[in-house]
Amino acid sequence: MTLSGGCTYTLSAPDNSTDGGNGVPVITNTVVIEGNGATIARSTASGVPLFRFFDVDPGANLTINDLTLNNGLVNNGVEGGGAIYVHSNATLSVNASTFTGNSAPATAGTTGGAIDSSGTLTVATSSFSGNSGTEGGAIFNQNLANVSTSTFTNNTALIYGGGALQNAGGGNLVLAGDTFSANSGPGGGAIDNDHSPLSITDSTFTGNTAGSNGGGAIVNYGGSITIIQSTLAGNSSPYGSDVLNYTSSTMTFSMSIVADGLGGSNCDQVAPITDNEYNLDSGTSCGFSSAKSSFSNVEPLLDSLASNGGPTQTMALPANSPAVDAIPATTVGCTGTLDQRGVSRPQGSGCDIGAYELIQSSSQTQPPSIPTGLTATAVSANSVSLSWSPSTNGATGYAVLRNGSVIGTTGGAGATIYTDSTVTPSTTYSYTVEAFDGTTNYSAASQPLVITTLAPQGGIAYVQGAAISTGSSVTSVTLQLGKVTAGDLLVGWFGQYNSSGQVQV
User: Who contacts 174 (Cβ-Cβ below 8 Å, separation ≥6)?
Assistant: First the structure.
């Protein structure tokens, strides 16, 4: 199913009442939706029934690409997923999509403000904001889930844990390259991990808030969590302002930063946290040891969350941070890996602690090769998505130019996608891309790509009309209209009585 670019499809009634109500028929086979920047929304008008958008049956497979789902709402106390409910043995793949304002507030049953999944879930380069659920403000996972290069902001768990994510029931959740900010819940401002395995790499947690159940960013109840090359800073809770590791839980940190918690100590170790080397704690509560080449009571000097290249925001390290080059290049997991933005590690004599690798100058004098294969992967009235082939010879990122001026950058030799969301409808632009390295070397610009954005899609509106009844036979008649322009839809209606001739319009 291919949707019209930039359109908003507003649903005011459910198609069916299955599992609490769905806006479209239940998915029973394989369906792929190419959103092209479109939005499917549940109407905000008074009296509109409660329903989500998609219900994916066992054995079915739903893929959504470049689609926004807004204002879905279910409250049946059995199954959640304000936007999508995924049964066991079903599969959901989400790419470059947005979930906003969806909710599953039932006080019983599983929830998940945007997605409730008991099947197999894959999410890539997507965003979740303003969603809410009883637990798991954005996603409730109970089976297999892989979430990468995605952003979770201002999601809320209403009664239990996991402002952004709830991983429970033995669910196996893998996170890579994600950012969690300003999410909140009673426990686990960003994530509540309940008796389940959870893996986190190259991710950033900041500004998340938990209540009396603790864990400003993450709370771990009887589960197993591994955190590698990630940054947790500036989260808030009276019990473990960044993390709370509860009784019978295991939590391991490697090459990560835990810092600047608000309201309590950075770590609350009801169960001990394992230091797997090269970690940094701005306090002493995480138990990091110099015997493990880790730092305690050391401030990482992090910058605020910002767009530093790559698909998600990060917290940059200044050159004077003790986290810079703190990991020897020979350490497993250092050389040959990428940071959250896609920047290759190491940039200096060693790798940096946390999710961000500082690009440092070098003796490189030859600029990277010119990017090739610039193409538009999606064009709507309000956005243009671009991709290109990677450059060689030490490229560490790319500058994207529109009409000759830089509008953004990406970080990493493999970071070859960019979406320009500042365009105007029905306008022609010329795009080019330049590759840069860790010094000041820039390649020449790629071949230009000329794109014209789509016209705005606001639906059909009545503008003008004219009517006449002649009362007798005539050979011609004229109706006077005001200005008519290209793209206007003209609809004619006529009647003919007791005439052998033909009407021509």
Answer: 145, 146, 147, 198, 199
Cβ(357)–Cβ(413) below 8 Å: no
> The dihedral of CA 450, 395, 127, 91: what is its sign?
positive
Phi, psi of 445 (to 5 degrees): -75, 150
DSSP assigned state of 161: B
The one-letter code for the residue type at 205 is F
Does residue 214 come out as left (phi exceeding 0), alpha (psi in the -120 to 50 range) or beta? Answer: left
How far is Cα 232 from Cα 63, in angstroms, rounded to an integer? 32
* Distance between CA atoms of residues 258 and 279, nearest Å: 8
Of 432, 435, 434, 433, the C-alpha closest to 449 is: 432
How far, in Å, CA of 336 to CA of 377, rounded?
Answer: 29
Q: How far apart are the first and last CA of the chain?
A: 36
Q: Name the one residue in this structure whose structure tokens are 């940054």.
A: 231
Q: How many residues does the chain have?
A: 505
Paired sense of beta strands 397-402 and 350-351, if any: unpaired
**pLDDT number for residue 362:** 54
d(CA 235, CA 480): 66
Helices (H), 365-492: none
User: CA 283, 199, 201, 265: dihedral to nearest 10 degrees?
Assistant: -10
Please return the burial class of 250, using the count of CB atoms within 10 Å of its CB with bins 0-12, 13-18 and 19+.
middle
104: which 2 tokens? 């599953």
Could you tell me where the beta strands, DSSP code E, fall in 322-362?
327-328, 350-351
CB atoms within 10 A of CB 63: 15
The pLDDT tens digits of the residues spanning 75-102 come to: 987 789 999 999 999 999 999 999 999 9
- Measured CA distances, 388 to 179, 380, 436 (Å): 24, 19, 14
Longest dimension (CA), the chain: 103
**Phi/psi at 268 (nearest 5 deg)?**
-115, 110
Alpha-carbon span 49 to 137, nearest angstrom: 21
Say what the pTM is.
0.77
Half-sphere exposure of 257 (CA within 13 A, CB side): 36
Strand order in the sheet with 103-104: 103-104, 132-133, 156-157, 184-187, 209-214
> Above 90 in pLDDT, residue 141?
yes
The region of weakest confidence among 125-139, 140-154, 290-304, 459-473 is 459-473
Q: Which residue has the tokens 């990493």?
A: 412
Nearest to 144 by CA among 115, 171, 162: 171
- Report how far residue 122's alpha carbon sits from residue 44's, in angstroms, rounded to the nearest whole number: 29
